[in-house]
């Protein structure tokens, strides 16, 4: 099988290749094509993969190209992992939002809206190219904001585009470990949107163990989300939220922590990765060792401000290891390519899974996966507190899609103003004015 990775010069590509190196079954991926618009980054990542697969006899061949048509032709699977505007764009998203006193996180709040506005037009172009050059390929979307981008690409690819995220998997794994259960034997009742979902049950041998967790404050605070949100809030919710809901439930504290931080997350990653790619231009640099050391630092500092606000301490050692989104992607590919039935939490078109949303809305829910793709399973209705947030954020996503497809500045302002974490239409207008000044990718939006 041939796999094409769009954004093949991205820092996390070696995680995907590492997962492929561990797959020795018949019908495995034999060729990986890396596509990126940045030849320098492509060369760096190709060096890492060469060292990574050096001692693996049947390591997939790696080809790097800056030609999109060449990358797509003949692909069986396409991974989309692009970052429009790069990490400099993410850092600008954070900086502009925080100057207005609102959250600028990559996928949540004003920063997520800005990222979506510049990413969706590019994702739509890519989807059209995939439909033309690789109509039988399955597209697996990693690109953030993952739910929004998957919904945009589904306009042209239908159910052949599936979005993935490792947050629900990691959350389920941590809950199972807290309960002393084997994560591989646990079934998670989870529903919402990408970065906006809740675990409402965790079943082991058919028994829901979540009530036992919620009733025990010591167990509740033994894992990261328990420490982030606190036992009292989790018991009142009757569910365990995705870690990204910390930005909603503790918004003032999160904004203040980001404003006071020496560097925002985007600025930190920008500086870190600039250093990595600069070192990779030096011929004698040990590629794999340099990448792995950089990755470990990246994982250890994930959501550091939120953990500081909550007094949650350092990340658990188990959460610093790989085994996240790349393993979800591999499991998804195996299920589709080999018709191996699997149950995975994915971003797919809703159909009737969440009754409050329309059939085409992309949601993040448990799915059954086989050779026919991923089909969402029925889930119980969301409680009102969750339904309100899901409905509001889906309205924001739809406004972003409208702006991206029409070029309407009014729709873009509407997207900012509708977001629950942007508290003023006046602020929404100022945000868009400032973002259009710093992001050339937003030049498509019309002027009043």
Counting helices, strands and paired strands, the structural category is: alpha/beta
Q: In DSSP terms, counting alpha (H) and pi (I) runs of 4 or more, how many helices?
A: 20
Largest sheet: 6 strands, parallel
What is the average per-residue confidence, as pLDDT, rounded to a whole number? 93
Globally, the shape reads globular
Give the strand order, joined by hyphens, for the main sheet: 3-2-1-4-5-6
3D architecture notes:
By secondary structure, the chain is α/β, with parallel strands linked by helices. Helices cover 50% and strands 15% of the residues. The protein has helices at residues 13-21, 39-52, 68-72, 86-99, 109-133, 146-157, 167-178, 210-214, 217-220, 224-229, 231-237, 246-249, 251-260, 265-280, 287-300, 304-310, 325-338, 384-406, 409-418, 425-438, and strands at residues 2-6, 31-35, 61-65, 77-80, 138-141, 161-163, 186-193, 196-204, 207-208, 240-241, 342-349, 362-370, 373-376. Helix 18 (384-406) packs antiparallel against helix 19 (409-418) and helix 19 packs across helix 20. The longest helix is centred in the N-terminal third of the chain and has 25 residues, at 109-133. The chain is globular. The model has no long low-confidence stretch (mean pLDDT 93).
